[in-house]
Specification:
This protein has helices at residues 2-14, 16-38, 40-46, 58-69, 76-121, 125-128, 133-174, 176-192, 194-223, 225-231, 234-284, 289-335, 396-404, 425-430, 446-451, 459-468, 472-477, 495-508, 525-538, 574-579, 584-596; strands at residues 354-362, 373-381, 385-389, 411-416, 419-420, 432-435, 513-517, 543-547, 559-564, 567-572. 64% of the residues lie in helices and 10% in strands. The chain is an alpha/beta fold. It folds into 2 domains: 2-335, ABC transporter type 1, transmembrane domain (ABC transporter transmembrane region fold), CATH 1.20.1560; 347-431 and 541-600, Rossmann fold (3-Layer(aba) Sandwich), CATH 3.40.50.300. The protein starts with a helix and ends with a helix.
Amino acid sequence: MALIYVYVRELYNLSRIKFVVNFILMISLGMMEGISVLMIIPLLTVAGVIPGIEVSSGLSSLLNNFFQNIGLPLNLTMVLLLYISLNFGQSWLQRLQSIIKFEIQQSFAVALSVRLFKAVAYAEWQLLISKTKSDITNVIITELERVYYGVNYFLQLVTTSIISLIQITIAFMIAPGLTLMVLISALLLFVFLQTFANDSRRLGEVITSLNSNLLFDLTEHLNGLKEIKSYGVEAAQVENFIRTREMMKKNLTRFNNLQTRTDMIYKVGAAVFISLFLFSAVEIFKLNPQDFIIISVIAARLWPKLSSFQMGLQNINIMLPAFHASKELEDECLAARENLPPGGTSKKIELNHGVMFRDVSFAYNSNRSGYAVKDLDFILPAGTTTAFVGVSGAGKSTIVDLLIGLLKSSKGDILIDDEPLMENLLPWRNSIGYVPQDALLFNASIRENMHWVCPDVSEERIWEALRLAAVDSFISSLPDGLDTVVGDRGVRLSGGERQRVVLARALLKKPSVLILDEATSSLDTENEKRIQQAIENLRGKMTILVIAHRLSTIRNADNILVLEHGQIVERGNYQSLMQNRDGRFHALACLYENEALPSV
């Protein structure tokens, strides 16, 4: 429960004035409800509706004297008008309080979700890749929604508690002994039902886990839709989804059974205790008719609130795991926040000398002895083209992630024009154009995809970038041109078209450094040549880093670094490396050349 108080305190800090006003309204509503109960008998008495009861003392006498002094007759019409006025005022305040409470909750919901999303957005890449996308999505969308509901249940408990406390106080003033007996009975029932609250918490943990699993199955299915259909394993995927969904249904049914059982016990308990209450009021405490009616009305209103209090606690307990999941993710992301300026910056770095890796090593797991890359010493001179080659797992993509600043080196330094990369992280990223193998295009028009990196760019600049990427003729031939919608992840374009559009988007930034991370590995020969020609046209205009499997794409690179088990084993240009027949590069060239030969 301590975690709920943390969130409630944040809610207070977010909307202090509205929070205080809401609290005052809750107290006012509780007092008005208490007054409405107290006025039942005195008003009916002074109006003569209930004959035979004296009005010489108590609230009845005060009301009678007040209306006599102001010269108004206190008859049945006046009683009803007072009753209507009191209920109108109470209803109006209730509506106002509900509106304010809703505004507070929505502001809190927006602030909480934005804060968590921002924490995730600015978290270090190494933390993010240690989690599945579905887990993060589940917390931001599903678990945060449960947090909102949990806070709402808590505020409802506070409201119920305030109103109940006022009514209990009134009841104590009238019949302290009888009220104490009722409270002790309610407390015993409450303690008895605490085992159900513990069961709710355990069910909440299971539901959190199942929500995560369900979203994971759905995300994985949609990501691998083409492969799933190709292998014809839709039935197995459907079975996995049904299994998880049925488990969720089973646990939600258990929670519903738990709630209905609690409700049933409270209703049966209410019947028993009210019977004992009525018997005690008449036979033991000998209450007069006025007090008896008031106490009866209070008891009738109070018992449902106690039942609501218990149900609210169960709902909070089932939401508690969501509080823990949300707080844990946020704390992890904040602890791993990247060193970026708070407001962002549009500043860029114009690379004048180059990028230096000085004795750089990196391990994905600090507890693991092996390094992904080790003892890297090289320079990427400004305005040149450098290529990294090696088999899968040699460390090529890790070097790219280190160069972009997504990963921090375990040891050694990465310098940009002799300045530490991590001290100029955002300006450096603003200076990079990145084209990965699995390029991301949004389900939007080509124009909108280009504006994603440069919101204010002119159409002339867009066409210039498309021309540099050798895709302008294709775009202009489309019926809708730049307004052509590319589909989910660019599915309506061919692989070559998609890669060239992504290359154009990267060039739109006018980067100092262009990184091509196996950007042509999945393309056919014709599209590969188009990309290669586009790269050739850019030589000397910017610093280019190429990660390649196909060595034909790097023949004209100024420098080639050959990686093996995370270390540089050879370096030179294409001609010099090919002349060393005993070298690793020559072996790779022969291997890829044999793989490219058609089968006979």
